[in-house]
Amino acid sequence: MIATRMKSFQISLLLFLLFATSALGQTTTSTPVVAKKVDPCNLGSIFEKNICSNIENNQASLVKFQLQKRSAENSLDKVKIWTQVNYACIRCKPQPGFSGGSMLRKCVLENALNVAFFLVYDMKVNMNIVEDDGRTLLDWVQEDTEKTFEEAFETENEQDKKFLMQSLNNSMKFYNLFKNNGGKFGHEVIKK
After folding, report:
1. What are phi and psi of 92, to 5 degrees?
2. How far is residue 51 from each of residues 41, 61, 90, 110, measured CA to CA in Å?
3. Do 135 and 80 contact (CB within 8 A), yes or no?
4. Range 152-171 average pLDDT
């Protein structure tokens, strides 16, 4: 008897739900509702341009100011948290010799060691993000360093060789900074 009442209750509930959902479907308008796609990384192109420009000039204090202004925070700890959350969204645009990418990639390109120190030591940004090209920061630096080494070895022009050897020295500084502070290669990040 109890089992029969339970089954009839469940059947009644099921019929009610079916009726309610079909009734809702009939009362809505025929115009489909389109969800507006929200880009969580839309920080603004002017902001990104200013950040990347300040990296080009190796101005860590101006990068800090821009991050502080954009995050609307005054405390360094709160700016740090905001920067860590939004770091992957701040992209520097491609230019000749640079395919675009993160702020730290831009630091390497521009030899902006002061900004790199600020981002690594003060902001403690994640250096292990796999970027659009499928590489982490260390993968990218290593590939760039290998290309520079090959070019320096192959060139016969002494002035070019001197420039490339200086670039190689700079790349090694960045590589050591990143590796010694938690940077990883893609195969270390993506474990199966």
Report:
1. -95, 135
2. 15, 11, 8, 13
3. no
4. 91
Q: How many residues does the chain have?
A: 192
Instruction: Look at the block and give the residue holding tokens 């969800």.
Output: 35
> Would you give the DSSP letter of residue 122?
I
Tens-place pLDDT, residues 57-70: 999 999 999 999 99
Task: Please state the pTM of the whole predicted model.
Answer: 0.75
Q: State pLDDT tens for residues 93-149.
A: 998 878 889 999 999 999 999 999 999 999 999 999 999 899 999 999 999 899 988
Burial of 6 (0-12, 13-18, 19+ CB in 10 A): exposed
For residue 60, give Cα distances in angstroms to 53, 54, 66, 115.
Answer: 11, 7, 10, 4
Place of tokens 């809702």: 24
